[in-house]
Amino acid sequence: MIQILPKSNIRKEFLDKRLQLSLSERFTLSKKIHNNLIKQSSYRKSKNIGIFMPIKNEPILFPDYRKINFVPVIKNEHLKYCYVGNLLVQKSFNILEPIKREYVQAKKLNLLLVPFLAFNTDLHRVGYGKGFYDRLLSLISHQHYRPKVWGIGYQFQLCQNSFNNKSDIRLDKVITDQKIYG
Q1: Rounded distance, CA 39 to CA 64, Å?
Q2: Domain limits of the chain?
Q3: Which of 30, 51, 53, 104 is 20 to 30 A away from residue 83, measured at CA?
Q4: Rounded-to-integer distance, Cα 31 and Cα 39, Å
């Protein structure tokens, strides 16, 4: 029988696990994630990619300079994407953001790479609980053209418990250091 756990319990458990990673382990696992990512034909075909600036031992995303990268920033309590320039500054939640903000609509991106604290095999994610990604994904999920949305994380973040609710938006794919789901 599948157990349903409150997301707050899942957040704590999986954040604690992730915070135990050493820098060396994080780098090694991130390289494996990167290798799985670049094998995907949709990734190779994508030109405009929404990435994230890792915090709290999230996987390191290695830049592909053949792509145009955009990072999420919070504007008026909503997640917006900005072109990654050369100059970054630490902002909300200690996340690096571009000093010069050149916004792009999320629907103009080919691919969104999103972090998570936990995920399940149904391709649902648990984030930090602020709802920024959930609101963005909800807005773009019904658009005719929308970017593919892939979760990026470690295999140990796979949660066997059911946790999604009606408002959760399913990811198109999850890429970990060991496996690709979706």
Answers
A1: 13
A2: 7-65+106-181
A3: 30
A4: 13
Fold for the domain defined by 7-65+106-181: Rossmann fold (3.40.50)
Q: Record the tokens describing residue 11, joined without a space.
A: 């957040």
Which residue in this structure is represented by tokens 């984030």? Answer: 127
pTM listed for this prediction = 0.88
